[in-house]
Amino acid sequence: MMMSVSDPTSRTVVRWAIMGTGSIANDMVQILKQLPNTEVIAVGSRSVDGAKRFGDRWGIPRKYGSYEEAASDKDVDICYIATPSMRHPQDCLLAIQCGKAVLCEKCMAPDDIVAKEVLDAAKASNLLFVHGVWSRFFPAMKKIREIIDSGEIGTVRSARASFCQNDGAGSCSALLETGIYCAQFLQWALEGPDTTSYDDTDIAAKGPIVRGACQVLHDETGLDEHVTAIIEFPGKKIGSFECSLAHCSNRSATIYGSEGVIDVPFPFWCPTKVTVTRMTGLGSQQWSEPVVHEFPLPSNIVALSTECDGTEEKPGFNFVNSQGLAYESEEVNRCFRERRMETPSFSSHQCIEILRLISDIRKYASK
Ligand SMILES: NC(=O)C1=CN([C@@H]2O[C@H](COP(=O)(O)OP(=O)(O)OC[C@H]3O[C@@H](n4cnc5c(N)ncnc54)[C@H](OP(=O)(O)O)[C@@H]3O)[C@@H](O)[C@H]2O)C=CC1
Ligand SMILES: O=C1OC[C@@H](O)[C@H](O)[C@H]1O
Question: Of ligand 1's atoms, which has the minimum distance to the CA of residue 85?
Fold first, then answer.
Protein backbone atom coordinates (compact mmCIF):
# COMPACT_ATOMS: atom_id res chain seq x y z
CA MET A 1 0.00 0.00 0.00
CA MET A 2 1.44 3.40 -0.94
CA MET A 3 1.34 6.60 1.07
CA SER A 4 -0.48 9.37 -0.67
CA VAL A 5 1.27 12.29 0.95
CA SER A 6 4.39 14.21 1.38
CA ASP A 7 7.86 14.52 0.22
CA PRO A 8 9.87 13.77 3.34
CA THR A 9 9.95 10.10 2.29
CA SER A 10 11.81 10.89 -0.91
CA ARG A 11 14.87 12.06 1.01
CA THR A 12 17.72 9.60 0.85
CA VAL A 13 18.74 9.93 4.49
CA VAL A 14 16.19 8.55 6.94
CA ARG A 15 16.21 10.22 10.34
CA TRP A 16 15.28 8.25 13.44
CA ALA A 17 14.35 9.07 17.02
CA ILE A 18 14.72 6.47 19.75
CA MET A 19 12.15 6.53 22.55
CA GLY A 20 13.29 4.77 25.72
CA THR A 21 16.92 4.20 26.66
CA GLY A 22 17.01 0.62 27.98
CA SER A 23 18.49 -2.70 26.87
CA ILE A 24 17.07 -3.05 23.39
CA ALA A 25 17.56 0.65 22.61
CA ASN A 26 21.27 0.07 23.37
CA ASP A 27 21.36 -2.66 20.70
CA MET A 28 19.23 -0.94 18.08
CA VAL A 29 21.13 2.34 18.21
CA GLN A 30 24.32 0.49 17.28
CA ILE A 31 22.58 -1.05 14.29
CA LEU A 32 21.01 2.19 13.07
CA LYS A 33 24.35 4.01 13.30
CA GLN A 34 25.84 1.49 10.86
CA LEU A 35 23.08 1.50 8.23
CA PRO A 36 23.72 3.54 5.10
CA ASN A 37 21.80 6.80 4.70
CA THR A 38 20.45 6.53 8.22
CA GLU A 39 20.86 8.95 11.10
CA VAL A 40 19.74 8.78 14.71
CA ILE A 41 19.08 12.45 15.30
CA ALA A 42 17.07 12.33 18.53
CA VAL A 43 16.53 10.39 21.71
CA GLY A 44 13.55 10.72 24.05
CA SER A 45 13.66 9.64 27.67
CA ARG A 46 11.44 10.15 30.73
CA SER A 47 14.25 12.25 32.17
CA VAL A 48 16.74 14.82 30.89
CA ASP A 49 19.51 12.83 32.59
CA GLY A 50 18.46 9.63 30.81
CA ALA A 51 18.41 11.34 27.44
CA LYS A 52 21.78 12.98 28.08
CA ARG A 53 23.43 9.75 29.21
CA PHE A 54 22.20 7.77 26.21
CA GLY A 55 22.64 10.64 23.73
CA ASP A 56 26.20 11.41 24.86
CA ARG A 57 27.20 7.77 24.77
CA TRP A 58 25.90 7.24 21.25
CA GLY A 59 26.56 10.66 19.76
CA ILE A 60 22.92 11.59 19.28
CA PRO A 61 22.64 15.37 18.83
CA ARG A 62 19.11 16.07 20.14
CA LYS A 63 18.47 14.78 23.67
CA TYR A 64 14.93 15.25 24.94
CA GLY A 65 13.72 14.74 28.50
CA SER A 66 10.30 13.59 27.31
CA TYR A 67 8.90 11.34 24.62
CA GLU A 68 6.58 14.16 23.50
CA GLU A 69 9.51 16.43 22.60
CA ALA A 70 11.31 13.67 20.69
CA ALA A 71 8.20 12.71 18.74
CA SER A 72 7.44 16.37 17.94
CA ASP A 73 10.89 17.09 16.46
CA LYS A 74 10.02 18.21 12.96
CA ASP A 75 13.10 16.61 11.43
CA VAL A 76 12.39 13.10 12.71
CA ASP A 77 11.02 10.65 10.13
CA ILE A 78 10.69 7.43 12.16
CA CYS A 79 10.20 6.85 15.89
CA TYR A 80 11.56 3.59 17.30
CA ILE A 81 9.47 2.74 20.37
CA ALA A 82 11.72 0.90 22.82
CA THR A 83 9.75 1.42 26.01
CA PRO A 84 8.20 -1.45 28.06
CA SER A 85 5.34 -3.29 26.35
CA MET A 86 2.60 -1.88 28.58
CA ARG A 87 3.37 1.63 27.27
CA HIS A 88 3.52 0.77 23.59
CA PRO A 89 -0.01 1.76 22.55
CA GLN A 90 0.25 5.22 24.14
CA ASP A 91 3.78 5.83 22.84
CA CYS A 92 2.85 4.68 19.34
CA LEU A 93 -0.22 6.92 19.30
CA LEU A 94 1.92 9.86 20.42
CA ALA A 95 4.35 9.32 17.54
CA ILE A 96 1.50 8.88 15.05
CA GLN A 97 -0.21 12.06 16.29
CA CYS A 98 3.09 13.85 15.65
CA GLY A 99 3.04 12.54 12.07
CA LYS A 100 5.90 10.04 12.43
CA ALA A 101 6.34 6.59 10.95
CA VAL A 102 6.74 3.99 13.71
CA LEU A 103 8.79 0.89 14.40
CA CYS A 104 7.38 -0.45 17.67
CA GLU A 105 9.11 -3.15 19.69
CA LYS A 106 7.09 -6.25 20.43
CA CYS A 107 4.41 -6.48 21.73
CA MET A 108 2.79 -3.47 20.14
CA ALA A 109 -0.38 -4.05 22.20
CA PRO A 110 -1.85 -6.49 24.73
CA ASP A 111 -4.48 -7.75 22.29
CA ASP A 112 -5.96 -7.34 18.82
CA ILE A 113 -8.53 -4.73 19.88
CA VAL A 114 -5.90 -2.25 21.09
CA ALA A 115 -3.58 -3.14 18.22
CA LYS A 116 -6.35 -2.26 15.79
CA GLU A 117 -6.77 1.17 17.41
CA VAL A 118 -3.08 1.87 16.83
CA LEU A 119 -3.12 0.54 13.26
CA ASP A 120 -6.30 2.54 12.52
CA ALA A 121 -4.56 5.71 13.71
CA ALA A 122 -1.49 5.06 11.53
CA LYS A 123 -3.66 4.26 8.54
CA ALA A 124 -5.83 7.37 8.99
CA SER A 125 -2.64 9.45 8.92
CA ASN A 126 -1.07 7.56 5.98
CA LEU A 127 1.91 6.59 8.11
CA LEU A 128 4.12 3.53 8.01
CA PHE A 129 3.68 1.30 11.03
CA VAL A 130 5.82 -1.79 11.65
CA HIS A 131 5.38 -4.11 14.61
CA GLY A 132 8.94 -5.12 15.42
CA VAL A 133 8.60 -8.89 15.52
CA TRP A 134 12.12 -9.06 14.15
CA SER A 135 12.03 -12.80 13.40
CA ARG A 136 10.11 -12.07 10.24
CA PHE A 137 13.02 -10.28 8.60
CA PHE A 138 15.66 -13.00 8.99
CA PRO A 139 16.77 -14.76 5.78
CA ALA A 140 16.48 -18.14 7.55
CA MET A 141 12.74 -17.56 7.95
CA LYS A 142 12.39 -17.10 4.20
CA LYS A 143 14.36 -20.31 3.67
CA ILE A 144 11.93 -22.17 5.94
CA ARG A 145 9.05 -21.15 3.68
CA GLU A 146 11.00 -22.14 0.57
CA ILE A 147 11.62 -25.60 2.02
CA ILE A 148 7.95 -26.03 2.96
CA ASP A 149 6.68 -24.72 -0.38
CA SER A 150 9.07 -26.99 -2.32
CA GLY A 151 7.42 -30.05 -0.77
CA GLU A 152 10.76 -31.28 0.55
CA ILE A 153 9.22 -32.46 3.82
CA GLY A 154 5.92 -33.52 2.23
CA THR A 155 2.65 -32.15 3.59
CA VAL A 156 3.14 -30.07 6.70
CA ARG A 157 0.92 -31.36 9.49
CA SER A 158 2.14 -29.61 12.61
CA ALA A 159 4.72 -27.38 14.28
CA ARG A 160 5.91 -26.64 17.79
CA ALA A 161 7.93 -23.89 19.44
CA SER A 162 9.30 -23.41 22.93
CA PHE A 163 10.59 -20.16 24.40
CA CYS A 164 11.13 -20.38 28.14
CA GLN A 165 13.79 -18.44 30.02
CA ASN A 166 13.94 -17.55 33.68
CA ASP A 167 14.16 -13.77 33.35
CA GLY A 168 11.40 -11.51 34.50
CA ALA A 169 8.44 -13.55 35.74
CA GLY A 170 5.94 -11.17 37.34
CA SER A 171 7.33 -8.04 35.69
CA CYS A 172 5.73 -8.73 32.31
CA SER A 173 3.54 -11.28 30.56
CA ALA A 174 5.24 -14.41 29.19
CA LEU A 175 2.73 -14.51 26.33
CA LEU A 176 3.67 -10.98 25.29
CA GLU A 177 7.43 -11.31 25.86
CA THR A 178 8.27 -14.74 24.47
CA GLY A 179 4.94 -16.34 23.52
CA ILE A 180 4.54 -13.93 20.63
CA TYR A 181 7.69 -15.34 19.02
CA CYS A 182 6.24 -18.86 19.26
CA ALA A 183 2.86 -17.78 17.90
CA GLN A 184 4.40 -15.94 14.95
CA PHE A 185 6.57 -18.99 14.19
CA LEU A 186 3.54 -21.29 14.07
CA GLN A 187 1.72 -18.80 11.84
CA TRP A 188 4.69 -18.65 9.47
CA ALA A 189 5.11 -22.44 9.37
CA LEU A 190 1.45 -23.43 9.18
CA GLU A 191 -0.10 -20.56 7.22
CA GLY A 192 2.77 -18.87 5.39
CA PRO A 193 2.92 -15.23 4.39
CA ASP A 194 -0.19 -13.13 3.96
CA THR A 195 0.36 -9.61 2.72
CA THR A 196 -3.22 -8.38 3.04
CA SER A 197 -4.22 -5.51 5.28
CA TYR A 198 -6.02 -6.24 8.56
CA ASP A 199 -9.33 -4.85 7.43
CA ASP A 200 -9.44 -6.71 4.10
CA THR A 201 -10.32 -10.05 5.67
CA ASP A 202 -12.49 -11.44 8.45
CA ILE A 203 -9.61 -12.68 10.56
CA ALA A 204 -11.81 -14.27 13.22
CA ALA A 205 -13.67 -16.36 10.62
CA LYS A 206 -10.63 -17.81 8.91
CA GLY A 207 -7.83 -17.81 11.44
CA PRO A 208 -6.48 -20.36 13.89
CA ILE A 209 -8.62 -21.66 16.78
CA VAL A 210 -7.37 -22.32 20.31
CA ARG A 211 -8.17 -25.93 21.29
CA GLY A 212 -6.38 -26.02 24.62
CA ALA A 213 -4.37 -23.75 26.91
CA CYS A 214 -3.03 -23.77 30.44
CA GLN A 215 -1.30 -21.03 32.39
CA VAL A 216 0.47 -20.33 35.67
CA LEU A 217 0.10 -16.81 37.04
CA HIS A 218 2.67 -14.97 39.13
CA ASP A 219 1.73 -15.03 42.82
CA GLU A 220 2.12 -11.31 43.39
CA THR A 221 1.37 -9.54 40.12
CA GLY A 222 -1.07 -12.01 38.56
CA LEU A 223 0.73 -11.78 35.23
CA ASP A 224 1.06 -15.01 33.21
CA GLU A 225 4.50 -16.47 33.81
CA HIS A 226 4.11 -19.87 32.08
CA VAL A 227 1.66 -20.74 29.31
CA THR A 228 1.17 -23.71 26.99
CA ALA A 229 -1.28 -23.76 24.10
CA ILE A 230 -2.63 -26.11 21.43
CA ILE A 231 -3.96 -24.44 18.31
CA GLU A 232 -5.83 -25.72 15.27
CA PHE A 233 -4.73 -24.01 12.07
CA PRO A 234 -6.73 -23.99 8.83
CA GLY A 235 -6.02 -27.02 6.64
CA LYS A 236 -6.01 -29.70 9.37
CA LYS A 237 -2.79 -28.52 10.97
CA ILE A 238 -1.98 -28.38 14.66
CA GLY A 239 0.46 -26.02 16.37
CA SER A 240 1.63 -26.09 19.95
CA PHE A 241 3.88 -23.88 22.04
CA GLU A 242 5.17 -23.23 25.49
CA CYS A 243 6.45 -19.93 26.84
CA SER A 244 7.70 -19.00 30.28
CA LEU A 245 9.59 -16.36 32.19
CA ALA A 246 10.03 -18.64 35.20
CA HIS A 247 11.95 -21.65 33.88
CA CYS A 248 14.19 -22.66 30.97
CA SER A 249 13.70 -24.60 27.76
CA ASN A 250 15.91 -25.28 24.75
CA ARG A 251 14.24 -22.39 22.87
CA SER A 252 13.94 -24.24 19.58
CA ALA A 253 11.18 -24.88 17.07
CA THR A 254 10.27 -27.76 14.74
CA ILE A 255 8.03 -28.25 11.71
CA TYR A 256 6.69 -31.73 10.98
CA GLY A 257 5.74 -32.94 7.51
CA SER A 258 4.58 -36.25 6.05
CA GLU A 259 8.08 -36.86 4.66
CA GLY A 260 10.43 -35.04 6.97
CA VAL A 261 11.20 -32.49 9.64
CA ILE A 262 12.61 -28.96 9.77
CA ASP A 263 14.50 -28.12 12.97
CA VAL A 264 15.26 -24.55 13.97
CA PRO A 265 17.65 -24.64 16.93
CA PHE A 266 18.23 -21.94 19.55
CA PRO A 267 17.64 -19.07 19.05
CA PHE A 268 14.69 -19.95 16.83
CA TRP A 269 13.17 -16.42 17.02
CA CYS A 270 16.27 -14.88 15.40
CA PRO A 271 17.53 -17.90 13.48
CA THR A 272 20.73 -18.38 11.56
CA LYS A 273 20.46 -22.14 11.06
CA VAL A 274 17.81 -24.49 9.68
CA THR A 275 18.17 -28.29 9.45
CA VAL A 276 16.15 -30.60 7.20
CA THR A 277 15.93 -34.34 7.83
CA ARG A 278 13.90 -36.45 5.39
CA MET A 279 12.28 -39.82 5.76
CA THR A 280 13.54 -41.69 2.73
CA GLY A 281 11.50 -44.88 3.05
CA LEU A 282 9.32 -46.77 5.46
CA GLY A 283 10.73 -47.78 8.79
CA SER A 284 12.63 -46.09 11.54
CA GLN A 285 16.08 -46.55 9.97
CA GLN A 286 15.42 -44.88 6.63
CA TRP A 287 16.19 -41.25 7.25
CA SER A 288 18.50 -38.94 5.34
CA GLU A 289 21.50 -37.28 6.91
CA PRO A 290 20.46 -33.81 8.13
CA VAL A 291 20.98 -31.05 5.56
CA VAL A 292 22.06 -27.84 7.29
CA HIS A 293 21.35 -24.37 5.87
CA GLU A 294 23.29 -21.54 7.52
CA PHE A 295 22.70 -17.80 7.31
CA PRO A 296 25.49 -15.88 9.05
CA LEU A 297 24.55 -12.54 10.60
CA PRO A 298 25.60 -9.44 8.63
CA SER A 299 29.39 -9.31 9.05
CA ASN A 300 29.54 -5.53 8.49
CA ILE A 301 27.49 -4.83 11.66
CA VAL A 302 29.60 -4.85 14.81
CA ALA A 303 29.38 -3.83 18.46
CA LEU A 304 30.53 -0.18 18.65
CA SER A 305 32.92 1.43 21.08
CA THR A 306 31.68 4.50 22.94
CA GLU A 307 33.06 7.16 25.18
CA CYS A 308 31.33 7.58 28.48
CA ASP A 309 32.50 10.02 31.18
CA GLY A 310 35.82 10.30 29.33
CA THR A 311 36.42 6.53 29.32
CA GLU A 312 36.31 4.32 26.26
CA GLU A 313 33.83 1.48 26.60
CA LYS A 314 32.52 -1.31 24.45
CA PRO A 315 29.03 -1.95 25.77
CA GLY A 316 28.38 -4.70 23.18
CA PHE A 317 24.95 -6.14 22.52
CA ASN A 318 22.57 -7.17 25.28
CA PHE A 319 20.68 -9.81 23.30
CA VAL A 320 21.57 -12.81 21.21
CA ASN A 321 21.93 -12.14 17.47
CA SER A 322 21.17 -8.43 17.80
CA GLN A 323 23.15 -7.79 14.60
CA GLY A 324 20.04 -9.26 12.97
CA LEU A 325 18.09 -6.14 13.97
CA ALA A 326 19.67 -4.79 10.79
CA TYR A 327 17.29 -6.92 8.68
CA GLU A 328 14.30 -5.34 10.38
CA SER A 329 15.53 -1.75 10.38
CA GLU A 330 16.69 -1.93 6.74
CA GLU A 331 13.20 -3.11 5.84
CA VAL A 332 11.66 -0.20 7.77
CA ASN A 333 13.93 2.23 5.89
CA ARG A 334 12.97 0.60 2.60
CA CYS A 335 9.24 0.77 3.34
CA PHE A 336 9.58 4.39 4.45
CA ARG A 337 11.44 5.38 1.29
CA GLU A 338 8.90 3.56 -0.86
CA ARG A 339 6.07 5.30 1.00
CA ARG A 340 4.51 2.08 2.15
CA MET A 341 2.19 1.93 5.15
CA GLU A 342 3.16 -1.59 6.14
CA THR A 343 5.77 -4.25 5.45
CA PRO A 344 4.83 -7.30 3.40
CA SER A 345 7.10 -9.35 5.68
CA PHE A 346 4.74 -8.95 8.63
CA SER A 347 1.44 -7.61 7.39
CA SER A 348 -1.09 -5.87 9.57
CA HIS A 349 -3.39 -8.84 8.92
CA GLN A 350 -0.87 -11.28 10.38
CA CYS A 351 -0.06 -8.91 13.21
CA ILE A 352 -3.72 -8.65 14.25
CA GLU A 353 -4.20 -12.39 13.84
CA ILE A 354 -1.30 -13.14 16.19
CA LEU A 355 -2.59 -10.74 18.82
CA ARG A 356 -6.08 -12.19 18.52
CA LEU A 357 -4.56 -15.64 19.02
CA ILE A 358 -2.65 -14.47 22.11
CA SER A 359 -5.84 -12.95 23.46
CA ASP A 360 -7.83 -16.16 22.78
CA ILE A 361 -5.15 -18.25 24.52
CA ARG A 362 -5.36 -15.95 27.54
CA LYS A 363 -9.16 -16.29 27.62
CA TYR A 364 -9.05 -20.08 27.20
CA ALA A 365 -6.43 -20.50 29.91
CA SER A 366 -8.43 -18.28 32.31
CA LYS A 367 -11.61 -20.42 32.08
N1 LIG B 1 13.55 -7.31 19.66
C2 LIG B 1 14.25 -7.77 20.67
O3 LIG B 1 15.19 -8.52 20.50
C4 LIG B 1 13.93 -7.33 22.04
C5 LIG B 1 12.79 -6.64 22.29
N6 LIG B 1 12.49 -6.22 23.56
C7 LIG B 1 11.27 -5.44 23.78
O8 LIG B 1 11.68 -4.09 23.91
C9 LIG B 1 10.91 -3.42 24.90
C10 LIG B 1 11.85 -2.81 25.93
O11 LIG B 1 12.57 -3.84 26.55
P12 LIG B 1 13.97 -3.56 27.29
O13 LIG B 1 14.80 -2.65 26.49
O14 LIG B 1 14.51 -4.88 27.64
O15 LIG B 1 13.46 -2.82 28.59
P16 LIG B 1 14.28 -1.86 29.57
O17 LIG B 1 13.55 -1.88 30.86
O18 LIG B 1 15.70 -2.21 29.55
O19 LIG B 1 14.14 -0.42 28.91
C20 LIG B 1 12.90 0.20 28.73
C21 LIG B 1 13.12 1.71 28.71
O22 LIG B 1 11.82 2.29 28.58
C23 LIG B 1 11.75 3.48 29.36
N24 LIG B 1 10.59 3.40 30.27
C25 LIG B 1 9.43 4.10 30.16
N26 LIG B 1 8.56 3.79 31.11
C27 LIG B 1 9.16 2.87 31.89
C28 LIG B 1 8.76 2.19 33.05
N29 LIG B 1 7.57 2.36 33.61
N30 LIG B 1 9.62 1.31 33.58
C31 LIG B 1 10.81 1.09 33.03
N32 LIG B 1 11.26 1.73 31.92
C33 LIG B 1 10.45 2.62 31.35
C34 LIG B 1 13.07 3.62 30.08
O35 LIG B 1 13.83 4.58 29.36
P36 LIG B 1 13.84 6.11 29.82
O37 LIG B 1 14.04 6.10 31.30
O38 LIG B 1 14.98 6.67 29.08
O39 LIG B 1 12.53 6.73 29.44
C40 LIG B 1 13.72 2.27 29.97
O41 LIG B 1 15.11 2.34 29.88
C42 LIG B 1 9.96 -4.47 25.46
O43 LIG B 1 8.71 -4.31 24.86
C44 LIG B 1 10.56 -5.80 25.05
O45 LIG B 1 9.58 -6.81 24.82
C46 LIG B 1 13.34 -6.46 24.58
C47 LIG B 1 14.48 -7.16 24.39
C48 LIG B 1 14.88 -7.66 23.11
O1 LIG C 1 12.51 -9.93 22.44
C2 LIG C 1 13.28 -10.51 23.13
O3 LIG C 1 12.98 -10.69 24.42
C4 LIG C 1 13.63 -11.65 25.18
C5 LIG C 1 15.08 -11.77 24.79
O6 LIG C 1 15.71 -12.76 25.53
C7 LIG C 1 15.17 -12.04 23.35
O8 LIG C 1 16.51 -12.24 22.97
C9 LIG C 1 14.59 -10.92 22.61
O10 LIG C 1 14.58 -11.11 21.25
Answer: 43
